[in-house]
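Q: Structure for this?
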Amino acid sequence: MSTLPRASTIFLAAITTLVAALLYSPLFVPIVSSFFPLSQGNVDWSSPTFSTYVSLAENHDILAALGTTLIVGLCTVVLSVVSGTLLALYYHGRRAGRSFLQFIIFLPFLMPPIISGLALLIFFREIGLERSLLTVVIGHTVFVLAIVYRTVLTRLQSMSRTLVEASYDLGATGWQTFWRVILPNLSSAMVGGAILAFALSFDETMITILVTGTQSTLPVRLWAMMRLGFSPDINALVALILMFTVLLCVLAARFLIPRQVATERS
Amino acid sequence: MSQNSDLLTLRSVSKSYGKVPVLHDIDLSIRDGEFLTVLGPSGSGKTTVLRLIGGLEPLTSGEIRLDGNDISRMPINRRPFNTVFQDYALFPHMTVAGNVGYGLSVRHIKRKEIASRVAKALELVQLARFADRFPAQLSGGQRQRVALARALICQPRLILLDEPLAALDLELRRQMQEFLKSIQREIKTTFLFVTHDQEEAIGMADRICVMQAGHIRQLGTPHELYYRPNCEFVARFFGENNLVAGKLGRVQGEQRSIETALGRLVCSVSGQPGLKAAPDGASAFAAFRPEALRLAEARDGDNRFAGSIAELAFAGSSTIATITAGAEGVAQRLRLRMPSRIDGSALKSGETVSLSFAPNEGHLVLA
């Protein structure tokens, strides 16, 4: 490959930096400003402080919302990982009906959340299911199932078929093959899928607003706070959610990189 | 060999995938303790034979007998055979010791016994130091030996090897061939080895089964296959060969003549009753190896013909000449191989020479 002339390299670097700055700097504004107090609607840059975080920690509504978010997230993870893995195992190697099933699974993920949320709301009303955390968990599971299913299925497809054959060949039963060969090879994909599912559930707002009962999750709480006016707590909350989500994504990426690559490097 | 030394017998075994037949009425007996190689080009059905025996695929028809008992419907995990897969199929999440011990641990054998048998198996394949490594940390040849140790630890009656050396480079492949052969002698277990590499087959096998297009073409020792191929396919596939088409002539004792573009050639038919009995004028080939062809000497009576040397190639220990022989229009291209000499070849490119081969070094195959 030939190298570009020096001038154009500098020009490209400048453009890239500018675009990156324009796109991503808004993300850092709440993080930075969360460390400064607000007085008369303006950020007071002169005295950095943790006061916003302290008042956030004393806000019982926020803490309750955080608890709710974690409960919903964990339930969603368990439900979606179990059902996503079972679906992937069932449809791996089966042609009949697979593309239709995938279409169904991916629909809620690809549709505008408001449509998914409304559809669920109408459905729950029709079958007489009271809006509660249960309906939120169902809503989130429907939403994130596609991610878990796809992650596990991809791993299954990349797994050599001879691994399963070798297990049988060495005298293992179907059950032993599942527990000792298939599942261990899927586990990192399942953990990765679970983390992504949790991150998605943690941030989900639209469907949650529509199908929740009296309890609100953290993003919904945030939404409610915004309607009452901009308070410094919001900066702190946004900063925390942002950092937590980034952390989850980094973790998920670690689990989803194939094991071989990691060990060969060592 | 008597009938009761047969370990495994395939009787009119056929296999189709959907409507596509891949094996036609295969009959094959594997003797106890032998190293049998199934040799064939890709698509010949050789791997399918191995998968049917291993139980990885169901038969379409026919039966497989082990010690005389039908095992055609025995599930794969109950058959006393183990396979070394082409891609080794080592479990990536288990250590070498875990992989090798897998066949024992799924049978609920005590940990202590597993540990000692794993140690012994790893000793046998010279990998004792690598027990705690993961497959990803091993070289190709080492993975290969782990796969072998894993297959032989259950003391199977038969070890099935599916082109296990295909992924290794030439030098390593040679070493592994010797290694496999020595292990087979040491543990006295029957090996069924599938390959498309005829050199590999000649070097390792007690007997070779040549397959083509879902049929067994010939089964015999490497020597039999090399010097007495029973059909054109084996004659061409197995080692380099000169084949000259013609019509069969008279039988004279253990020899028979054939009328070809090179004139009348005389070849041995000893031990080939089919060729002795074939009618006069039947289409056949005279076949003789490049190393059997040589410059004619005054005392040679039969099988003399003239040829011009089109090309000379030095190949280290031997020199190979490409020769054009016979009248224009029906000219044959032949190969001649002779030992190289430091002071150069006795042949010169472009020269016309008188050639010959001994009748007992030539043979006939029906077209």
